[in-house]
Every structure is written in C-alpha cells, then in structure tokens.
Write a structure and sequence with these properties.
This protein has a 7-stranded mixed sheet, with helices on both faces. It has a single domain, classed as Rossmann fold (3-Layer(aba) Sandwich). The chain is globular, with a radius of gyration of 17 Å. A hairpin with a 2-residue loop joins strand 3 and strand 4. By secondary structure, the protein is an alpha/beta fold. Helix 1 crosses helix 10.
Length: about 250
C-alpha cells in the first residue's frame, strides 16, 4: 500500500483536481483507493458531490478520537472517502500534545498496519504547513506536488521542499517528494514550456512526463460533483489524468 500526500504551499495549482481525478483513474484501473480530505475548505469532499456543510461526522471527529475512521467512510463509485467539513479549522485549538500524529494514531490498527486492504491512500492537504498538513506528512511515504506552469508557483515550490526536509528530520524520516505534476499547461505559451524545462533541469527525474493541459471541463466538473471521467470522459482532462495515473502507478509499483 502506498500513502501519498498531494501538497503545495500555494493554492489554486490543482491539488484537489489532481487528488480526485488520480483517485478516480486508479479506481478505473482496478486499484482499491481511499481519499482523505485534510483541508478545512473541504474542496475534495465537495468535488465528490458531498456537501461539506451537511457532513456531520468528518475526519475532524476521527482526529479528536470521537470516531473510528471506518465509521465515517463515504463511498463514491468505488472510492472510499474520509470527508472534511468546516469544523476542521478548529484542530489548531484542540489541547492535545503531539497533534501532528493524530491522523497516524487514528489510522493504525492493532497490527500496526495503516489502512490495510487499500492499494493507494491519497491525502489532499491544505495550502499551508499547518497541523493538518503535518498530520498528512507524518503518515505519508510520498509527496506529489502539483505545479502550475507559471513563474511564481515555481519559486514557491521550494518553500515546500524546505518544509519537507524539516518534516523528514523531526517527524517522518521515510517521506520523500517523489513527483512533480505540471498543471494548467498550455504548450503554446512560452512561459509554460520554460517553467517545465527549468523544473526538469533543477530537479531531474522528479517531473512526470504527462502534463495536465488547460481544460475547461476540469474546471466545470467540481460544480457537478463529478470526476472528469464521469463528467466528460472524452476530454483532454480525462486523457491527461489517465496517462498521469498510469505513470504514477508505474513509478511506484
């Protein structure tokens, strides 16, 4: 089983879109997948067609110790989801020690195996290095970084790499940034091409060959509570995320 955090300190780079659609592609390819929404904005929850404001029992209740994670699972088309709701922001105020390990403790079974039975666990992180992101990184082996093909997100990505080194030193020595995903890519724009070329030059072997092209359908799908494969399976977005997912599986397996 692979536990993967999808993380970037900058918002709007395609974290949630990537989490949801990679999970959907994995399920189509026959993998058993769980998605954990660790963002208090609950955009992954919403993207799967679940209204966060109507979620009475969320991953927040699991972190507090009020619920077992098995009690809050919602299944959408074969994908198990641990949903979020706006109460997640209150995690900062819970008077508990070592709060960065709450998720890891909650997902451990009596045999000390995390979430046995799943091929992949994907965790959507908030766009900041707060308690929720640290919880995700404490349990993850791998980090995937969606990178919008623009100048500022490229330079902001290095803040995440520095944060991961701190996490590796103090919280989880096994974690690694293993992949960078180019998102919102338009091959006709020179800045997009230059950012991807510079990423490969500075971080050889990290950038996936598949780029997620600009695609209106990817922007529209969340409003319908659907993955791209449900909303427009013949779109470039569906083609790109399927190709990316096959590349991810090939890299990790």
């Amino acid at each position: 089983m692979k536990i993967i955090s999808i993380s970037n300190n900058k918002g709007g780079v395609g974290k949630t879109t990537t989490t949801v659609n990679v999970a959907a592609a994995m399920q189509i390819l026959g993998k058993k997948v769980m998605v954990i929404d660790m963002d208090h904005q609950a955009q992954t929850t919403y993207h799967f067609g679940i209204n966060p404001n109507e979620v009475k029992e969320s991953i927040y209740d699991v972190l507090k110790g009020d619920k077992e994670f098995t009690e809050i699972i919602v299944n959408r088309n074969g994908i198990d989801i641990l949903p979020a709701n706006p109460e997640m922001r209150n995690i900062e105020f819970i008077p508990l020690p070592a709060k960065e390990f709450l998720l890891k403790e909650a997902l451990m079974d009596k045999d000390k195996k995390c979430l046995s039975g799943y091929d992949y666990v994907l965790i959507d992180c908030p766009p900041s290095l707060g308690v929720l992101t640290l919880n995700a990184m404490a349990i993850s082996e791998f980090i995937l970084v969606p990178l919008q093909a623009q100048f500022l997100p490229f330079h902001g990505m290095y803040n995440l790499f520095e944060a991961v080194q701190m996490v590796k030193k103090r919280i989880n020595r096994d974690i690694e940034v293993t992949g960078i995903i180019g998102t919102m890519y338009n091959p006709k724009k020179s800045i997009n091409r230059e950012v991807m070329e510079e990423t490969e030059r500075r971080l050889p072997g990290k950038l996936f060959n598949t780029f997620i092209r600009e695609n209106v359908a990817l922007q529209e799908a969340p409003s319908w509570g659907k993955t791209i494969f449900e909303y427009k399976p013949e779109s470039n977005g569906a083609d790109d995320y399927m190709a990316l997912t096959k590349e991810i599986i090939s890299r990790y397996e």
